[in-house]
Amino acid sequence: MFWSKPKKLLFEHVPKCGGNSIRAFLKQSYSSEKSFLLNGGSPHSSIESFKDLPKPQRHSFQFVFGHGAHRLRRHCDPEMLAATILRDPIDRIVSHYYFVAASPDHYLYEQLTAEEMTLAEYARSNISGELTNNYACRFLEIDNEEAMLSPQATVDRAFDLLSNDYSIVGTLENLDESMMAIKKMFRLRKRWVNQKLNVTKQRKSKSEISDEERQAIQESNSIDIELYRRVLAISPK
């Protein structure tokens, strides 16, 4: 049987949105020579390294993946399509907190533990852009201060970008359906199996957090919560 080769794929990995399991699956379909995987520990240096490559080499990559891959779209082959997976913003921050608390190598671990932050304090801390409207800020390439100048306009702009520039915007809540859509669109032959890599253990579920914790997360991620509500309407189910 004749199999078409996979389409070129750029995948933006948002922290705590299932990226490690997704990467393990996707990279099976692309040769290592034609793949550019951003260094999760230093994504900014990876981004600059990619930009410094000659145009023919940049355009030759079949698969680009990682934190900040979105910022490389204009530097990749114009034929390359993009995909990403998002997650309920409240659940993402809960997962983020417990993951950092259990990860001494994480760049936020020392501050979180030294200050003995609660989940509510962590959500309000502003110690990282990953904790405040990270979806909108990530894809629009702005900071939270700019995002909050006109919250509804920020939601509109971010949603327009995702719906127009991304072929698939899936959700972690419907990960199997999202990955099957990616598999079909990008002509990937490997079988999708959710390996659940890097899953945060011993954490509260979204339903177990207190009203104070929920309110703190909502206040810091109001734009992302509305954006995610709109993304649900266009995501695979």
Automatic annotation (TrEMBL):
Coiled-coil regions, chain positions: none
Pfam families per record: Sulfotransfer_2
Cellular component GO terms, alphabetical: membrane
Name of the featured protein: Sulfotransferase family protein
GO MF entries: sulfotransferase activity
Organism per entry: Aporhodopirellula rubra
Superkingdom of origin: Bacteria
InterPro entries hit by this protein: Golvesin-related_Golgi (IPR053259), P-loop_NTPase (IPR027417), Sulfotransferase (IPR005331)
